[in-house]
Amino acid sequence: MKNGNTILLDIEKLNSEGAGIARYNNFVIFVKNSCPGDRLKCKITKVKKNYAEAEIEEIITPSAFRVSPMCKLQKICGGCTLQHIEYSKQLSLKQSMVEDTLHSILGEKLAVNKPISSGKDYGYRCKIQYPVRNKSNNGRLYAGYFKQGSHELINIKYCPIHPEICDKIIEFVKTEGEKKGISGYNEQSNSGILKHIVLRYSKFNNEILVILVINTEGSIPECVKLLLKNLYDNFNKITGAGVNFNNLKTNVILGEKTKILYGKNYIEEKLADFVFKIGADTFFQVNPECAELMFKYIKTYITDTFTNPRLLDAYAGIAAFGITLSPICKNVVSVEINKQSVENAQKTIKENDIKNVEVITSDSLKYIKQTNDTFDITILDPPRKGCGEELLKEVLRITKNKIIYVSCSPKSLATDLKYLLKSGCKVENIQPFDMFPNTFHVENVAVISTPSA
Predict the structure, then answer these.
(1) Which residue, among 390, 393, 383, has the nearest Cα to 425 in the 3D structure?
(2) Most exposed of 154, 294, 373, 409 (fewest Cβ within 10 Å)?
(3) 189: helix, coil or strand?
């Protein structure tokens, strides 16, 4: 098999990144934008030792689950890689994807429930982060997502997975930015003014926080100030507008310092009867409607299993778990390293007169290693890379009964579960939530019994 060879392939299932899996003479071949049940004419584009990659030249027989994508850019954008698959089928495919990922890493099969849908597969995404570039010498600004597997920017004017008002704001930034001579970022030379457009949108009251990430250390060009003023004056739903300073040559979007020039430095979002304040760099689920279902699921489980438990909320962010679960807990300790998130959590606690939640500013590992306190339940909601053995070992030391592990990455979840299982834990339940419809991403909640349970 060589690059450029054309072959017929039957797609069996999807891998963990949403590519179709086919076999040719028992050799695995991955095909993007395919669907289980497709029969395809494909061209080989890459050959490795254990697998190959191919692209579709012709759909000979389409799968019964194949549909026309809503977005014309679906094949190249790199975002909604499953948009060509019927939504109900996406849910069962994600179930299989999680099962297969866990099996490949753990070496054993764990039962995974069918994902719970938010009930809304478009217009759900409330956090948008678009890189900005100049793609030619005409001064035009481009913003959107990178082409799948590359750093080639796809200019996007309409994205169906986020609210329509966000498209209008981004288009305004590009158009008015061009008029004011604002340059887009150049990765190679680390030059240009505007690196990213970041929007936080509230489903609760439709308010929007706009942050322009600029390539300076602390000064704000007059053209950027004027652009933000025009934005704030032209969109009454923008309740805050400002800049974030990031002059480093890095893949990290936000720098350490944000300055609001107009309005507030947060939006408000309602979750499980509590209103939370969300800033530019605050961690919060991008799909609030599905997040509410996930929080209710966890709350119901704890209510049915415990009476007034003591709860540790690690990687707490704005303490969303700790606060929403506080009515059914004896007391809660929420641990978060981001100072702005801690401040926002403390405001929510004060405004709601919550007496049994303590928020601690600390790295989760540092706090857990140092404490001699014990908890009935520990909730872990780590970054995509997972927790790691050092933290998990300490969690087992202080957790008497259950670990509830919330993960956006089946791979890191599986890696951490492998350690926990070796340590004598038992996986009680794995419930996916389709927080990211039309993409290959899926959120998972794993309920784990500790050896001391």
Answers:
(1) 393
(2) 373
(3) coil
What are the phi and psi torsion angles at 380 (to 5°)?
Answer: -115, 125
Note if 71 is an active site residue: no
Cα–Cα distance between 172 and 166 in angstroms, integer? 10
CB under 8 A, 24+ apart: contacts of 102-108: 102/410, 102/413, 102/414, 102/417, 102/430, 104/414, 105/411, 105/414, 105/415, 105/418, 106/414, 106/417, 106/418, 106/421
Helices (H), 280-388: 288-305, 320-325, 339-351, 364-370
Q: Which residues pair with 275 in a beta bridge?
A: 270
User: Residue 432 has what DSSP assignment?
Assistant: E
Name which of 99, 118, 113 is nearest 431 in CA terms: 113
- The single residue listed with the structure tokens 């300076």 is 216
In this prediction the pTM is 0.92
Q: Where do the domains of the chain lie, and which CATH numbers do they carry?
A: 1-66 (2.40.50.140), 127-271 (2.40.50.1070), 287-449 (3.40.50.150)
Task: Count CA within 13 A, CB hemisphere, residue 272.
Answer: 22
> Using an 8 Å Cβ cutoff, are 217 and 211 in contact?
no
DSSP string for 113-170: PPPEE-S-SSS---EEEEEEEE-STT--EEEEEEPTTS-PEEE-S--TTS-HHHHHHH
Q: How confident is the model at residue 139 (pLDDT cuts 50, 70, 90)?
A: confident
pLDDT cut 90: percent of the chain above it: 87
**Token pair belonging to 378:** 């520990």
End-to-end CA distance of the chain: 54
Please compute the mean of the pLDDT values over residues 294-307 and round it to a whole number. 97
Total residues belonging to the chain: 453
Q: How far apart are CA 341 and CA 361, in angstroms?
A: 9
CB count within 10 Å of CB 398 equals 16
Both tokens assigned to 141: 């600004």
Q: What's the pLDDT tens digit per position in 42-100?
A: 999 999 999 999 999 999 999 999 999 999 998 888 789 999 999 999 999 999 999 99
Q: Is 389 helix (H, G, I), strand (E, B) or coil?
A: helix
Q: Which of 42, 126, 290, 408 is catalytic?
A: 408
- Which DSSP state fits 307? S
Any long-range contacts for 91-94 (C-beta under 8 Å, 24+ apart)? 91/115, 91/117, 91/434, 93/13, 93/14, 93/36, 94/432, 94/434, 94/440, 94/442
